[in-house]
């Protein structure tokens, strides 16, 4: 039977070196990898672990992502692009600076909780600080998001809604509150990330000192 | 020469399996390991890397720390104990709640910068969130430090110095500002951690909303 190629003899079983048919393969692999990287770290997860979680061969994963780092890279770019769209839309819809800041924090928290595993991977997937694992594209997307917040705060300062000495420091403070959540927030807990964000918003707008 | 034991024949040269003479061996190993773990993560560092950095054999490191995790554990306990003493002394010396909060943030930042590598290891040495790498002793020390801050804020609330809805949330906000520094602060930069902490203190005490 010369016309039947060896790698298609066993229909329904994935031949070595060829990807099996699966719906939305890239998204499926990214989703499984996010959970594994989030739980055990980038270094603590192998491409084989990812393949097993998806239920395909390692070769099938290789077909879509030649290296583990390619999975990380696509996950982060996808996350940052969707975050910018979601949070950007929310602040555009809010009428004035304080409402925009509230929308920024609230929407970011909802987005964070909805995409919890990928966030943990992005912000806490690697141990150590000196490994240069962010690409220029990712750094540019991250900076674009930070600029969205700085611009919102600067507008609020110009309008007299906010009294801010240093917009960059204020933006960093807001992002610190949000980002540190990857270290203590538990999706299975009783309080939603959005509720913590609203409490933080109140706190940072009012300050600890009583208003006279 | 039956009275001379084989492992002491070569005086001045470290025999395999026996530690060489070095001053303050535990502190020396912890210091070298802190830098390596901070740069490359816990998983990205081997006991052999640590031995090479100290300039001894792997067996010499084993003599003091049977596993890599033992190094991490002693590093974190030591750090948390010294942090509690340093920050505790500073807030005891400060006269009233707002000065105490300022002392807490300022002293913690100085302590963080002085012990930068060990802090990075403690807060960002491992990738992923589900690895249960903190011992009960470490968790108790961490909680003791957080209680120090909560108690300070609660005293300030009772005295009318602070208007705080939820002391736990306010404490978490302060710690988020401080802890996220492990991800962006660069010791080689121009601004000291202490100066960032003082700006954060001002920001969180006054709030973004202008004071009438």
Automatic annotation (TrEMBL), chains A, B:
<dbReference type="InterPro" id="IPR001647">
    <property type="entry name" value="HTH_TetR"/>
</dbReference>
<feature type="compositionally biased region" description="Basic and acidic residues">
    <location>
        <begin position="1"/>
        <end position="10"/>
    </location>
</feature>
<dbReference type="Pfam" id="PF17932">
    <property type="entry name" value="TetR_C_24"/>
</dbReference>
<dbReference type="InterPro" id="IPR050109">
    <property type="entry name" value="HTH-type_TetR-like_transc_reg"/>
</dbReference>
<keyword id="KW-0805">Transcription regulation</keyword>
<feature type="DNA-binding region" description="H-T-H motif">
    <location>
        <begin position="46"/>
        <end position="65"/>
    </location>
</feature>
<dbReference type="GO" id="GO:0003700">
    <property type="term" value="F:DNA-binding transcription factor activity"/>
</dbReference>
<keyword id="KW-0804">Transcription</keyword>
<dbReference type="InterPro" id="IPR023772">
    <property type="entry name" value="DNA-bd_HTH_TetR-type_CS"/>
</dbReference>
<feature type="region of interest" description="Disordered">
    <location>
        <begin position="1"/>
        <end position="22"/>
    </location>
</feature>
<dbReference type="InterPro" id="IPR036271">
    <property type="entry name" value="Tet_transcr_reg_TetR-rel_C_sf"/>
</dbReference>
<dbReference type="GO" id="GO:0000976">
    <property type="term" value="F:transcription cis-regulatory region binding"/>
</dbReference>
<dbReference type="Pfam" id="PF00440">
    <property type="entry name" value="TetR_N"/>
</dbReference>
<dbReference type="InterPro" id="IPR009057">
    <property type="entry name" value="Homeodomain-like_sf"/>
</dbReference>
<dbReference type="InterPro" id="IPR041490">
    <property type="entry name" value="KstR2_TetR_C"/>
</dbReference>
<keyword id="KW-0238">DNA-binding</keyword>
<feature type="domain" description="HTH tetR-type">
    <location>
        <begin position="23"/>
        <end position="83"/>
    </location>
</feature>
<protein>
    <recommendedName>
        <fullName>HTH tetR-type domain-containing protein</fullName>
    </recommendedName>
</protein>
């Amino acid at each position: 039977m010369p016309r039947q190629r060896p790698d298609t003899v066993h229909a329904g079983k994935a031949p070595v070196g060829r990807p099996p048919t699966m719906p939305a393969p890239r998204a499926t692999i990214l989703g499984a990898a996010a959970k594994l990287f989030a739980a055990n770290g980038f270094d603590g997860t192998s491409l084989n672990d990812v393949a097993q979680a998806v239920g395909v061969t390692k070769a099938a994963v290789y077909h879509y992502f030649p290296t583990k780092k390619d999975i990380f890279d696509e996950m982060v770019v996808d996350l940052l692009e969707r975050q910018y769209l979601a949070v950007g839309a929310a602040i555009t819809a809010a009428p004035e600076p304080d409402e925009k800041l509230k929308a920024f924090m609230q929407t970011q928290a909802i987005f964070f909780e909805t995409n919890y595993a990928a966030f943990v991977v992005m912000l806490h997937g690697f141990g150590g600080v000196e490994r240069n694992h962010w690409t220029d594209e990712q750094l540019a997307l991250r900076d674009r998001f930070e600029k969205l917040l700085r611009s919102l705060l600067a507008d609020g300062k110009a309008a007299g809604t906010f009294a801010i000495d240093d917009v960059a420091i204020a933006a960093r403070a807001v992002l610190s509150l949000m980002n540190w959540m990857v270290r203590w927030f538990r999706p299975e807990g009783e309080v939603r990330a959005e509720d913590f964000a609203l409490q933080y918003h109140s706190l940072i707008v009012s300050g600890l000192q009583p208003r006279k």
